[in-house]
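Key result, reporting period 2: structure in, sequence out.
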């Protein structure tokens, strides 16, 4: 099939998934719709099983996977990570305990390849899944195992999102009825008033001016506007970052995916590249299309018997991993003296990430808050840790886990 036709078919299913996810407020995962839809039409013979390969999107993935990981390192500014350090610890704790429980159960039941196939996707999002799928295919493992990461990715948000909704509602109701919400709001107002006083002393420009001065002091490198706002230059810088990761992987024996992530964090911290680099270069969409295509491909080429054979391992991985994430989140929350309902919610963001974490938090704040003021206060209390937890697990933690595990295949 002509590449233009194949790419249009693949992107049609991706677009359909996005549309249904938006309509259902992320209750129906977009990837579930996209991958299940294209699997069904391929099984019916309506599209060739080479449609993903013919679209040339996997080739785009090959070029852009390391730049994409570099971009993921630029998503969360270091000051934000430091401010929300509890959320980072809880997210990592949930992932590590989940991987540990999977090792205890899945290894003796199914073997190492099944463990690797499930651990990376369960601990994070689609990029970790694509790295796992790519590694399994390169190692030449059985097709029924290669299809497992895609199945886990499709289904992992189904148990996690209702549980997060339940836990966040408990946290929000307790925060509202205990009077703690009002105290948090008063503290925020006092901090805001102090910030306003400091800004007045610093001269005209207010908070924004002060923030810009602070950011400038923190950055070691300041790019001229003509370069910082040039899409092609930013894309070039991201490709250089990905190339450096590939170059350093040999002598350091560190997976290139981890190096790309670290280089993205470092480059953004010093100001060499802007935050959200691929989005700034208007290249993020095609990179993600390539990632989704890599995850879709095993489902299309696999036989129905392969998919059926992978269902039991998938269910075991989902149940054990889900319990492990909640256990890890609970332990870390207790040690950090946080509310368990919020901490376990932060840990569960590993199973769905953004934008579901944002939508769930906004929906709970909207339903529990009795007026607009309370809704805003609840959002301010819940949204920062939820977003940082999701970004930590999906963008960095899962990539590290998947990269390390795949290297042992």
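The corresponding designed sequence is given below.
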């Amino acid at each position: 099939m002509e590449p233009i036709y194949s790419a249009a078919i693949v992107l049609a299913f991706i677009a359909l998934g996005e549309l249904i996810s938006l309509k259902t407020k992320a209750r129906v995962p977009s990837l579930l719709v996209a991958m299940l839809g294209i699997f069904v039409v391929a099984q019916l013979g309506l599209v060739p099983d080479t449609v993903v390969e013919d679209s040339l999107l996997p080739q785009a993935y090959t070029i852009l996977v390391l730049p994409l990981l570099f971009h993921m390192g630029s998503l969360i500014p270091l000051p934000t990570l430091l401010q929300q350090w509890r959320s980072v610890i809880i997210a990592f704790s949930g992932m590590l305990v989940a991987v540990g429980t999977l090792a205890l159960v899945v290894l003796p039941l199914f073997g190492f390849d099944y463990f690797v196939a499930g651990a990376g996707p369960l601990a994070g999002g689609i990029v970790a899944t694509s790295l796992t799928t790519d590694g399994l295919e390169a190692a030449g493992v059985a097709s029924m195992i290669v299809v497992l990461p895609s199945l886990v990715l499709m289904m992992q948000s189904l148990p996690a999102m209702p549980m997060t909704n339940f836990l966040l509602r408990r946290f929000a109701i307790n925060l509202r009825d205990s009077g703690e919400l009002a105290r948090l709001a008063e503290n925020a107002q006092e901090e805001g008033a102090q910030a306003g006083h400091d800004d007045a002393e610093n001269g005209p420009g207010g908070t924004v001016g002060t923030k810009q001065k602070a950011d400038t002091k923190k950055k070691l490198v300041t790019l001229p506007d003509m370069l910082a706002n040039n899409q092609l230059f930013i894309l070039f810088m991201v490709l250089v970052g990905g190339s450096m990761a590939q170059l350093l992987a040999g002598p350091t024996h560190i997976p290139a995916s981890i190096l790309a992530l670290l280089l993205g964090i470092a480059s953004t911290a010093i100001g060499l590249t802007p935050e959200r680099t691929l989005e700034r270069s208007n290249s993020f969409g095609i990179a993600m299309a390539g990632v989704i295509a890599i995850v879709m491909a095993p489902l299309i080429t696999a036989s129905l018997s392969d998919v059926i054979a992978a269902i039991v391992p998938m269910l075991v991985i989902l149940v054990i991993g889900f319990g492990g994430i909640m256990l890890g989140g609970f332990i870390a929350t207790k040690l950090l003296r946080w509310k368990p309902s919020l901490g376990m919610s932060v840990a569960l963001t590993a199973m769905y990430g953004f934008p579901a974490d944002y939508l769930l938090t906004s929906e709970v704040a909207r339903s529990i808050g009795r007026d607009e003021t309370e809704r805003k206060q609840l959002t301010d209390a819940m949204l920062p840790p939820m977003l940082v937890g999701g970004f930590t697990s999906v963008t960095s933690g899962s990539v590290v886990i998947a990269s390390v595990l795949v290297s042992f295949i």
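The radius of gyration is 22 Å. Confidence is low (pLDDT under 50) at residues 191-216. This case is discussed further under Risks and Mitigation.
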